[in-house]
Amino acid sequence: EFHEDHFLRRRFCSCCPFRSRIPSPSKETILDFLNKIAESLYFCKQVVVLCAIYIERLLSRTDTVLTTGNWRSLVTAGMLIASKVWEDIHPWNADFEECLVEIAGIRYRNGALYRLESLFLEKLQWRVFVDGEIY
């Protein structure tokens, strides 16, 4: 469901057999991606923590599994939602998309970031409140 093929624009034409390699979802790779987004959009650390909580919540309460094909989508949706929950003034989806192009070369299809965010929230059953004990 969260696989990048559903949301990203094609990087190459369909006749080209080569595709750029997506990094494996190691802790270091994910943390680096999170930090790059946070630095680029001036997010506070609380947004990164909320994102981690949302992803953990999604993985533990649904049948979603972190894979090479979906980890960047999950982190992107988690950061976007966390920023909207935590920040009084959060970036627009278009600003978020621009940031992803700059830091990772990720280009979303028109409306795809909205669909990704909606899918993530549906899977969480819109439960974005985080109790102080969990935080």
Present the secondary structure layout.
Blueprint lengths: L26 H14 L4 H17 L9 H16 L6 H12 L7 H12 L12
Helix pairs in contact: 1-3, 1-4, 2-3, 3-5
Structural notes for this entry:
The protein is mainly α. It contains 5 helices and no strands. Helix 1 (27-40) crosses helix 4 (93-104). The radius of gyration is 15 Å and the shape is globular. The two termini are 27 Å apart. 26% of the residues are buried. Residues 15-19 have low confidence and may be disordered.
Which terms summarize this structure?
53% helix, 5 helices, mainly alpha, 135 residues
The radius of gyration computed from the alpha-carbon positions, rounded to a whole number of angstroms, is 15 Å
Strands, count: 0
Relative helix content? 40-55%
- The N- to C-terminal Cα distance equals 27 Å
Mean pLDDT score: 86
Structural class by SSE content: mainly alpha
Would you identify the regions where 5 or more consecutive residues have pLDDT less than 50?
15-19
> Total helix count?
5
- Compressed to H and E, one letter per element, the order equals HHHHH
Query: What's the overall geometry?
Result: globular
Relative strand content: under 5%
Query: Largest sheet, described in full?
Result: none
Short description:
Helix content is about 55%, strand content about 0%. By secondary structure, it is mostly helical.
